[in-house]
Request: fold
Amino acid sequence: MAYNIIYKKSVQHDLKKLSKAEAKKLLDLLENDLSKKANTFPALKGKFSGLRKYRAGNYRVVYALIDKDVIVLRIRHRKEVYKY
Reply:
């Protein structure tokens, strides 16, 4: 099953904090992995229940899975992604 990937404006802000090489690498990983198997990554619990996470090195991608759409909400370093 192929998923459509949609990025919120907050993701653009998060990517500006990264180097261009890191940002490109992350986006390439997202396009490859999330578009094919977004439903296989772990669901979050607690105040983030209903969302899922994708691990990419030291970065975490928090996203929502709605039907055939993957809505990417945040891309942050693993130390700070769950503080907001």
Summary: The mean pLDDT is 92.
